[in-house]
Structure formats: structure tokens, C-alpha cells
Amino acid sequence: MIKEENNNKQELLVRELGVFELRGLAREVGVPSPTTKKREELISLILQKFKDGMVVDPKRKAKGRPYKKLSSIEEIVSTMTNAAENNIKPMTYESIITFTQELPKFNLSDDDTTYVLEGIARQNEDYMLFCCEDKYVYIKDIDYAEKLRVGDKVKVEARSIGGKKNYIATKILSINKIETKNYQTKVSDNGEEIISNQTFPYGETKIFVGRRNAYLFKEDLYENDSFASLTKYCKENSINLLVLALNTSYENQIIFKNLEFENFTTPYGSSNIVNFNKVIDTINYAQNLIEHGENVIIFILDIVEVLRALDKCFVNEKGSEHCEQTIIIADKILSLGKAYKESSSTIVLGYNKQDKDEKYLNENILRISKKI
């Protein structure tokens, strides 16, 4: 009797979900290719999984849009009669950014205009895509798509599908700035990590190569020439300078236009979704460059602002200072600081005086970083 009541409650709750929530729940219970199935089919397959004894781990957050909680999944999970304690899969960076944007129907609009768009490649199920500000560009079933790896900088020709923010690539023009037909996928064997004693200048201080460098900014970037000098140094020494700066001042945006670096910045007041994508693209691109044996500097203007921006994309169910997903992504950033004999990835983690008592900053970043 109790089991029958649970089944009825599950069905009612499942039927209350929207299509995106249904697809997210379908992934959790192992329904293959949920984006290709219609609503009623999804409901039927999910309910059948429950009848077959499928258990959803109640400690695991559902994989869905990072900006929208699957509101009824926890209640559905609470109706399960079996525990999943022995099969808990911890949340990972990869599980968070297995991109949650749903694949739209590829219906080309009447407008046959071709757009040239560029972004950092990301994997989602059986296809690739990238974000270009608030646009989503899908790469599927076209020539050279098999060459793409996560973190590649890809430029495509694309046409609009399903509204102004969705596009489908019709031709891949270049991968990592190399013409597609000439591009060869490669991964370098960087060898064992080392502790480097090399440094490079930044203003009146020096940055340690291959480490996490915590820097207390006393004034904004535009107020002195330290940052401009850094961009020049990187260009002269063939170093890839990646700059992550969210909700930055109008003055900073002005100087950014006149300097050369890999720009992952957003102006003040940018949307949560744009900020989220800039963080993920920075990580993926940096990791890609590291795997290619490149020298990299990841310059983060305000790491606490990054934490705040990420928090706005998730639901803080534990009531802690930051969301669990935020901490996982931040830890991933910290892990990128490393040095090898022939290459290195250096992180500069900027923060401001008013945030000096922030908990994660003190207990994690400052504890494992070189204060400069």
C-alpha cells in the first residue's frame, strides 16, 4: 500500500515538471538522449525507471541548467523506498559543466544570413557547442567537427535557429587560429611537475611562475600602467595571457580595448549566464593550452567577485558561505597553477581590501598561494 502511494506521488510530481526539468531528471535516472524525446515519452520512460527500482542519489544535485533548479526532484527522491548510500557519485567540475543548455530543434530560419562567430568549444553529450556572449552555437555533423577538443578556440560560419540566441554551425573556419583543413589535434607530454624559481615583473612586485599568486589590489587596473606592462611582457615572451574579470568598471573596459590578451572580461552589470560562461571558458581554454605545452598566465582581477558571480547561478541548499558548485569551480581554478621543465601555468588571484576577511579567500586561496 505504501509503495503504491509512493508510485502515485512520484507520477504526480513527475507530471508537474516542465520539459527542461524532465530532461534533467531523465539524465539522472539513465534515460538515453533525453533531448530527442517528447514530453510524454520522457514521463513514461522516467516512471518505468522508478518501477524498475532505479534510485536517484538524494545527496547529488540534479544535472540541469545551472541557472534553474529542478524544483521537484528532491521531493521525488524523498519518495524512493531504497537508499543509495553505497552508490554515491560526488559532484565534480565535469558534472557541473557538462553543458546544460538544451539542444534546440535544428530548424533553420527563413533568414539565410551567415554569421561568423567564435568561442571556446565545450562538450555536451554527443555534440560540441560554444558560447559567444549570450549566443549558443551548436556544432554537429559537419566536416572537421571530429578534430575539436574541449577548450579549443573555434571560429565558424553559422545560421540562426530557434530564435536570436541559438545558432547552428555550417562550416568550421579555424581551430586555435589555424585553418581547419591544416589543423592537427595534438597533446604534449609535459612530463613531471616541478617547482619553478622563475619570476616575472608586475608593477613593483614580481609574480612567481607556475604558482598561485595572491595580489592585494590597492587601486584599479586603469589607474597605473602595471597591467599594460604585463600585456607587453607576455607578447614579447610568447606567453598566453588570459584575463578573467567579471563586472568590471567602465574605465577598465576602455583600456582593455587597446591591449592585447585573451579577453574573458565582462562589463559591470553583466548577466549571470554571461559571467558563468566566461569563468568556464577561461578554465577550459587554459587547460587546453596547458595540454598543448603552452606557457600561460591566468590573471583574475577579483577572485571574490568571481565567487559571488558563480553563487548567483546556483542554489545554496546548505546555507554555507558559497554554493557547493562554486567551491568546486574555484578549486578547479586553483589547480591550474603548475610548472613543468618546458612550460608553465601561472595564476594571479587579485582581491580587494574590503574582502580581506572573506572566508574562502583566507582559508583556501591565501593558505596555498604566494602573497605578492
Salient structural properties:
11 helices, alpha/beta, 372 residues, 7-stranded mixed beta sheet, disordered N terminus
Biggest pleated sheet: 7 strands, mixed
Mean model confidence by pLDDT: 84
What low-confidence regions span 5 or more consecutive residues with pLDDT below 50? 1-5, 57-72, 77-88
From the alpha-carbon coordinates, what is the Rg to the nearest angstrom? Answer: 23 Å
Order of helices and strands: HHHHHEEEEEEEEEEHEHEHEHHEEHE
Which structural class should the secondary elements be placed in? alpha/beta
Q: Helical proportion?
A: 25-40%
Describe this structure in words.
- The chain has 372 residues and is of the alpha/beta class.
- Strands 1, 2, 3, 4, 5, 6 and 7 form a seven-stranded mixed β-sheet that branches.
- The protein is built from eleven helices and 16 strands.
- Strand 3 and strand 4 form a beta hairpin.
- Helix 1 runs antiparallel to helix 3 and helix 2 runs parallel beside helix 3.
Helix/strand layout:
Elements: H1 2-16, H2 19-29, H3 39-51, H4 73-78, H5 93-97, E1 115-120, E2 122-124, E3 127-132, E4 135-139, E5 153-160, E6 166-175, E7 178-179, E8 199-202, E9 205-208, E10 212-217, H6 226-236, E11 240-248, H7 250-256, E12 262-267, H8 272-291, E13 296-300, H9 303-311, H10 324-334, E14 338-339, E15 344-352, H11 359-368, E16 370-371
Parallel strand pairs: 4-6, 10-15, 10-16, 11-12, 11-13, 13-15
Antiparallel strand pairs: 1-5, 2-3, 3-4, 5-6, 6-7, 8-9, 14-15
Helix pairs in contact: 1-3, 2-3, 9-10
